[in-house]
Each structure stands twice: as structure tokens, then as C-alpha cells.
Write a structure and sequence with these properties.
The chain is α+β, with helices and mostly antiparallel strands and 104 residues long. It has a domain at 1-45: YefM-like fold (3-Layer(aba) Sandwich). The protein has four helices and three strands. The longest helix has 25 residues, at 43-67.
Length: 104
């Protein structure tokens, strides 16, 4: 749980807040009109937070790429009003017409 403090009070207590974050291991959320504005976290927390999205993103990309192409169930195309299917870029014959843009 983070400690919340209004921005006006945070200005006056910045040195104390920094000490709480660095030495006390706390996270401080600075608010304006009761809404979170910014957070003070330790440099170690920041490094960990910045490293996580990349690792998570890589897992998602590898999971999705492992799935491969998926075909629609019979009747689903009509149900959703899809009249025709255009070949994807990797399915087009070599030298195919791309003048209408991708997926067209």
C-alpha cells in the first residue's frame, strides 16, 4: 500500500518523502484534488518496473506467434456479415496485385 499525500504538502516535505522511499521502502503517491498525480518509488523499484513490460511483452508475442493461423468456425462468417475473405500478405501469390493496400 502506498502513502498518499497532497501535492502542496509534498512540496513542503520533499526531503522527508525521499527518505521514506529510499530508507523506509515506502511508495508515495502525490495527489491533486484527491486524484493520483505522480508516484515516488526507489530507483530499484523503477528498474524492476521498467524491465517487466519488456519481459511480459516478449512472452505475449511468443505465445501469439506459436498459435499459428486459425480458421473461422463454419457459419461464423455469415453470422457476422463477412461476405468475402481477402488473402493475407503471406498468402498472396508472388507478384500479386497490392495496389489496393494490405488486406484489400
Amino acid at each position: 500500500m502506498a502513502y498518499e499525500i497532497p501535492v502542496t504538502q509534498a512540496r513542503a516535505e520533499l526531503a522527508d518523502l525521499i527518505n521514506r522511499v529510499v530508507y523506509g521502502g515506502e511508495r508515495v503517491v502525490v495527489t491533486r484534488h484527491g486524484k493520483p498525480l505522480v508516484a515516488l518509488v526507489s530507483a530499484a523499484d523503477l528498474e524492476r518496473l521498467e524491465g517487466e513490460p519488456e519481459a511480459t511483452e516478449e512472452k505475449v508475442i511468443s505465445s501469439v506467434s506459436a498459435l499459428g493461423p486459425v480458421e473461422s468456425a463454419p457459419g461464423e462468417r455469415r453470422r457476422f456479415g463477412i461476405a468475402a475473405e481477402h488473402p493475407r500478405d503471406h498468402e498472396r501469390p508472388e507478384g500479386g496485385d497490392r495496389s489496393q493496400g494490405p488486406g484489400r
